[in-house]
Amino acid sequence: MAPEPEQIPSRTCGCRDCLIDLPPERYGQQPPHDACTGPWRVRYHNETGKHRAKNLPTLRDAQQFLATVQPKAVSRAS
Ligand SMILES: [Zn+2]
What we know:
78 residues, alpha+beta, 3-stranded antiparallel beta sheet, 3 helices, 3 strands
């Protein structure tokens, strides 16, 4: 099973989730968004088996990147 990109909170995003993780009283006012604009993090293993993570601006970018680095399922080591 391929790991899904996960969206991470952004200080420049004002969606509900980001406001919870990054409260305005601590991180400053953020313009409200209905949909989160935070970057997407993909986790993968590189050619040498090292665990890597990379942030991409959109889900599409993240999925496309994942397709280039992950020809086969990544083992789920804990
Ligand atoms: Zn957000």
